[in-house]
Amino acid sequence: QVQLVESGGGLVEAGGSLRLSCAASGPTLIYSVGWFRQAPGKERTFVASIRWTGGNTDYAASVKGRFTIFRGNAKNTVYLQMNDVKPEDTAVYYCAVAPEVRRNQYDYWGHGTQVTVSS
Q: What is the pLDDT of residue 109?
């Protein structure tokens, strides 16, 4: 099992920055941590991911160059640094974990944190 707690969401003006945090706890070995988002009336979509070991990252085209995913000094925490945000970035942001035993499936999810970008 993995417990995930997101924080850092809020209201930000277009062009501004925001940093989301995802704290993970539990005994399950983690393969990858991902950030996803869901805008009102839309499906949840992939934003970024990072391999727990090695740190390889991947980004959706819509955020590449603006968002950065990284692990902090508190090693069980993954961050999503959001720069130059746009109104279309408004969504509930979720972090998720793909365990070592099932690398191709995000089995564990947090409850989400709201990000609202004003124009």
A: 97
**Nearby residues of 45 by Cβ (< 8 Å), 6 or more positions away:** 36, 37, 38, 60
- The mean pLDDT of 52-68, rounded to a whole number, is 96
| Contacts of 38-45 spanning 24+ positions with Cβ under 8 A | 38/91, 38/92, 38/94, 38/112, 39/88, 39/90, 39/91, 40/91, 42/91, 44/94
pLDDT tens-digit series, residues 13-22: 999 999 999 9
Q: Which residue has the tokens 């920055």?
A: 17
Cα(67)–Cα(19) distance, integer angstroms: 9
Would you say 63 and 75 are in contact if contact means Cβ atoms under 8 Å apart?
A: no
